[in-house]
Write a structure and sequence with these properties.
This protein has about 240 residues and is mainly alpha-helical. About 55% of the residues lie in helices and about 5% in strands. It is found in: Nucleus.
Length: about 240
């Protein structure tokens, strides 16, 4: 038999939810053969599906229900083995939304900048709640978070800077400082050569953090490369002089 298979990803922002619902209705109106739609709708059919502390308005639940009903769909939840359900997180360190560090670090690689920002805020919250988890996972966190030093989104970079300055680097100050510096410097240098000037300039803010927290571990071999990058910025963008 012939049937149609559709992959769907719903809008994240609440003010865009109606667009998702209208799209579902539109898809249903176009199909004259059996069809199956699979994906992440970023919506809830019931309050029982909610995980975390933030409330989900009844109007959004009702709107999604109506869209499903209008589209003549029946819903089936698929639970993957790697998904962490609330019951499986008992005793684990989670942030106020019920997410583990592993889940939050994975979200920092998401294509949506807002997801990046929320993940960084979530990591800050988790480490504040569970200092022992921070001490245990700090190197793994730095290794993943350093990828966002050259992020195109200014708010993401600022959130990362605050996370490093207030939470992560102070915690690592008494540990292997050379390791932290060696993990961060390649990504700082990479950001210094970014096409976007704002990214290049903020790379020096991250460099300042290294100098602030780990001055003895800063190798003189970095100096020449730093001066070259800064000179290039001055030459190309004289308004920063």
């Amino acid at each position: 038999p012939i049937w149609c298979f559709i992959i769907f990803y719903g809008y994240l922002e609440r003010y865009d939810k109606r667009n998702s619902w209208d799209l579902l209705r539109h898809i249903a109106s176009l199909s004259f053969i059996p069809w199956c739609i699979l994906g992440d709708f970023n919506d809830l059919l019931s309050r029982d599906d909610k995980i975390g502390n933030y409330d989900h308005p009844n109007c959004l639940i009702q709107g999604f229900r109506e869209a499903i009903s209008n589209s003549n769909m029946s819903s089936t939840a698929i639970v993957l083995p790697e998904q962490s359900l609330a019951a499986e997180k008992a005793g684990l360190a989670v942030n106020k939304k019920g997410l583990t560090l592993k889940e939050l670090l994975q979200q920092t690689s998401h294509h949506n900048p807002k997801v990046h920002r929320d993940a960084l805020i979530g990591i800050k919250d988790l480490f504040t709640r569970y200092p022992a988890e921070q001490k245990l996972q700090k190197y793994a966190a730095v290794e993943k978070l350093r990828e966002r030093i050259g992020d195109d989104d200014k708010v993401v970079r600022k959130s990362l800077y605050d996370l490093f300055k207030v939470v992560i680097l102070p915690c690592c100050k008494e540990d292997n400082q050379e390791l932290i510096v060696s993990l961060l410097m390649p990504y700082i240098f990479n950001a210094m050569t970014h096409l976007v000037v704002d990214v290049r300039m903020m790379a020096f803010d991250f460099l300042d953090l290294i100098l602030e927290f780990y001055p003895p571990s800063f190798s003189p071999s970095y100096a020449e490369k730093i001066f070259q990058n800064y000179e290039d910025i001055l030459v190309r963008n004289q308004y920063y002089l």
